[in-house]
Amino acid sequence: MRILMIILVAALVGGAVGGALGYVEVRSESNEIGALTEEEVALQADAGQKFPRVKVDEPHHNFGRMERGREKSHKFVIRNIGDAPLTLTVGQTSCKCTLSEVESGAIPPGESTHVKIEWSAKADQGPFRQTATIHTNDPQQPDVEL
Question: Given pLDDT bands bounded at 50, 70 and 90, which one contains residue 16?
Answer without folding.
Answer: low
